[in-house]
Amino acid sequence: xxxxxxxxxxxxxxxxxxxxxxxxxxxxxxxxxxxxxxxxxxxxxxxxxxxxxxxxxxxxxxxxxxxxxxxxxxxxxxxxxxxxxxxxxxxxxxxxxxxxxxxxxxxxxxxxxxxxxxxxxxxxxxxxxxxxxxxxxxxxxxxxxxxxxxxxxxxxxxxxxxxxxxxxxxxxxxxxxxxxxxxxxxxxxxxxxxxxxxxxxx
Length: 202
What we know:
Blueprint (H helix, E strand, L loop, with lengths): L3 H7 L6 H11 L8 H14 L14 H7 L6 H4 L6 H8 L13 H4 L11 H11 L3 H8 L2 H14 L2 H6 L3 H9 L5 H16 L1
Helix pairs in contact: 1-2, 2-10, 3-13, 8-9, 9-10
């Protein structure tokens, strides 16, 4: 169990500590995230991914330079300027023709942009998660933007990718790679984890 004081200490910038704590305590045990090592690792990773549990929908307001840096093949320098700071158009191009999405003109990229604590992305993942959560495809969009849905989507990804075992073994870098695909934000993730260790041992 996570206390409200523990959540507040870890994420002082979050203004909804009670509601988040209640939702975490309701959802995490269903996915076996019920030991101190698992909870600490989950909070550190989810806290980083969601900017301290404050961002549940992907921010796609990229500059031209950031587009080329993030998606060099989709937004080469000669194209990026046409899309800069246009989130809907960016999503539709960035996520076109993959993850179950249709072409750029379909609007699937924007419709299925990252949602939830871990930024669930793409039509295929939306459909898979809807089935796992016992929701219809049409219901899953709104659910992912609730606290419970945001948490559950990350729990679902966490369990399906063997993250409990990595948390048990305290293999935090391997866990980060499993979630991120690399080590982006490792310094912040590690700082959150080390803070969580102190908070949960207090």
